Amino acid sequence: MLDFSVTFVITLINLGILFLILRSILFKPVSRFIEERAKRVQDDRDEARRSRAEAEAALKQIEGRLKNAEEEAAELIRAAQDEARQDAAAIVAGGKAEAERFLAQARLQAQAEYQTALRLFQAEAAALVVSAAGKLAGRGSGSEAERLEQAAALIRGIGSFPAGERRV
Length: 168
Prior knowledge:
The chain is mostly helical.
């Protein structure tokens, strides 16, 4: 059968003592180290999840702000275009009004020049007619004042007829 000697028993005792010593010196600290490391890994994972959730929330918030900024930019562009159209319309209207004012002023000036030229023409024509009539009638010797008076009377008579009618 098996023979157990004292050395075998001492070896078993030594192994038991070694186990207890190693357990207290190595096993517990190693177990503690492994547990702490596992806890740190778990904490890091939890922190990573929280960070990812925060990043996703921040991303959604930034995307929302970006969308709002794009909408505001589009609205500002539309408002600026509307304002530019209104300004252009006002400038065109002002230009038309100024052109009409210049045109009216030019018409008035042309009318005044026409009236002046007409009076001058009438005066010269009347003086010519009076002079010609006086020479034909043999009264060419009348004074200058008389001729002017006769011309003025003729001008008044010519001015009383509507345009296009002739005195025979």
